[in-house]
Amino acid sequence: MWQLTCLRFVAEVALHTLDSPRSIRASSTSFQQAPRPAGSRVMGKITPLGRYVIIRPCTDLMNENPRVKSVLCFGTAERIRNMCSLVHFRSADPFRDVLVPQGASCSSFVSYAAGMVANASTDSVFVGPCDPTGNSWFPQDYLSLAIPINMARRMADDLENSFINKRPDVAYPEQRSNA
User: Fold this and answer.
1) Calpha distance 147→70 (Å, rounded)
2) How many domains is the chain partitioned into structurally?
3) Tell me: the pLDDT tens digits for 48-79?
4) pTM over the 0.85 mark
5) Among 2, 24, 102, 133, whose Cα sits 20 to 30 Å from the Cα of 34?
6) Residue 50 is assigned to a structural domain of this protein
7) 71 contacts 147 by C-beta, under 8 angstroms
8) Residue 137: inside a domain, yes or no?
């Protein structure tokens, strides 16, 4: 059920340009954006990738499908933390590769990582959702991680040499201290 809610909201968001502060409608509730401080960045124009955005399980995808723009993962905090560490495996900048931007849930699920938002980084992963309107339908102990496809391929290449494979006891400890 929550997937359908998400897809319906993506369609609504993709039809708007968010270049300036204004009211944004989410379901039947209207929220007013807070005034932006001088020099702050805005999302920029949201450009649909085509007439339709297709979301499907990764098991249905071919390895080198050029139309795939991003991968979306859902997991517990531990699993998302480990994937974020894998993102940093080759990184020289610990402040740029993993982002938690504000926006509609489906922005963090699809729009940012798929390259639909003008000012979103194309070489960062996006943790979410930050939208509190999703609290009623998104599992409370889960997070999402949206990964641009070029980064997902890099992460797959790094997996064998990463701590996830070399030190699974660190990545997924069986026993935990009660600190």
Assistant:
1) 5
2) 1
3) 888 888 888 877 665 667 788 999 999 999 99
4) no
5) 2
6) yes
7) yes
8) yes
